[in-house]
Write a structure and sequence with these properties.
Strand 9, helix 10 (about 235-245) and strand 10 form a beta-alpha-beta unit. The strands form two sheets. The protein has a seven-stranded parallel sheet, with helices on both faces. It is an alpha/beta fold. About 45% of the residues are buried. The longest helix is centred in the C-terminal third of the chain and has 18 residues, at about 335-350. About 45% of the residues lie in helices and about 20% in strands. Helix 5 packs parallel to helix 6.
């Protein structure tokens, strides 16, 4: 008789970030007859995903820690939790949870897997330094894209294995819902003739949403029928609201805040535009493609591993804003191109970036490092 393998996920918070959102999404597809999943997070005020994890069968516990260093001080409490729940494998996400996992591995020998979502060059100097010092005190590193894997190899030169497992999304959940999308457009006063250019995510510096607004302003000046929708929230919210006003876009760019029904909002968009400076493997992009949006993005990090230029979407160089404006202008005006890219985008995700593919690869790793026990 097979016993379940008890796996513990460690993550700093359970707010609605990309790495965090993957936890309930993957849990819904895991083989729960073979695995039991536990989740520990540290920032008590970032708990938006707790209910989703619990409803999907996860066992969630908060070990409150207000500062990064306090996370590491939880090591003995968490080791006790691991022993009392017969945890046989730890899967860590993002640096500070990773540092804690490596400390646990050093003290107990329990296998630890670490998922890296960003390039090393994008971290604070101290984070990079600690990452480099501690990286080999774990069993395996998983990179969310080949670009992230290359960064790990070039910056850290690890002695442990590094494996790429690309992010995936639920293509059934994220499929175009025309009825829901039209309802949102009607509520916002957006007419059928309007072309909606949108984006969705956390309002952070890396997303360069100030530039997104500038690009939109340039297109709106040329093509007044376009409308913008920026779904999300984050530390730059007030700056972006101010920027929107300075550009005279208050009436044509809608910022509805954070939304849990993201597939409905993506279904209201015709074109999904990303202006990021860097990305690991952006879930929002995969979700938009799965919802049959035509996508246009800067060539940032793992994005180029998803989009094949002029086949699944449009790519432009990082700082070439005039070219982005020109491509976006063509996309708005060319209905045939827009429709073709939308169809190809969804098929690309179905073929290469589904959540089931991701879960299958993760379970292969889990079984390699913590085989199921027999009575």
């Amino acid at each position: 008789m097979l016993n379940k393998t008890n796996i513990l996920h460690l993550i700093k918070s359970l707010g609605r970030g990309g790495a965090e959102t993957l936890l309930p999404e993957t849990l819904r597809y895991h083989d729960i007859s073979s695995f039991e999943f536990y989740y520990i997070y540290f920032l008590p005020w970032k708990n938006q995903l707790v209910a989703e994890l619990t409803s999907a069968g996860g066992i969630v516990k908060n070990f409150p820690a207000s500062y990064n260093i306090n996370i590491l001080l939880k090591v003995n409490e968490i080791i006790d939790y691991i022993k009392s729940n017969n945890i046989t494998l730890i899967h860590c996400h993002l640096p500070w949870a990773g540092f804690l996992g490596r400390l646990i591995h050093f003290k107990t020998g329990i296998p630890v897997i670490y998922s890296e979502h960003n390039k090393q060059e994008r971290y604070h100097f101290l984070t990079r330094l600690i990452n480099k010092w501690t990286f080999n005190f774990q069993s395996l590193a998983i990179a969310v894209s080949d670009d992230v894997k290359t960064s790990i190899n070039n910056s850290i030169h690890p002695r442990i294995p590094v494996k790429t497992i690309s992010n995936g999304i639920d293509t059934l959940k994220f499929s175009r819902n025309t009825i829901a999308g039209d309802a949102i457009r009607n509520d916002l006063g957006i007419a059928n003739k309007n072309i909606v250019i949108g984006s969705l995510g956390v309002f952070r510096v890396q997303k360069r949403l100030d530039k997104w607004l500038e690009v939109f302003a340039a297109i709106h000046k040329l093509l007044p029928m376009v409308r913008g929708v920026l779904v999300g929230d984050g530390p730059l919210k007030n700056q972006l609201i101010k920027k929107r006003s300075e550009l005279g876009l208050d009436e044509v760019v809608i910022m509805p805040g954070l939304k849990s029904n993201s597939s409905d909002w993506l279904s209201a968009m015709d074109i999904f535009m990303m202006s990021s400076e860097f990305e690991g493997m952006p879930l929002a992009l995969l979700e938009a493609m799965s919802c049959s949006c035509a996508v246009i993005c800067t060539n940032a990090g793992g994005i180029k591993e998803v989009i094949r230029h002029e086949q699944d979407g449009i790519l432009t160089e990082l700082h070439d804003w005039p070219l982005l404006i020109a491509h976006l202008n063509e996309l708005v005006l060319n209905e045939e191109l827009k429709s073709s890219l939308a169809v190809s985008a969804r098929q690309r995700v179905i073929d290469q970036f589904s959540i089931q593919r991701m879960v299958n690869e993760l379970e292969t790793v889990y079984n390699s490092y913590a085989p199921q026990k027999r009575d």
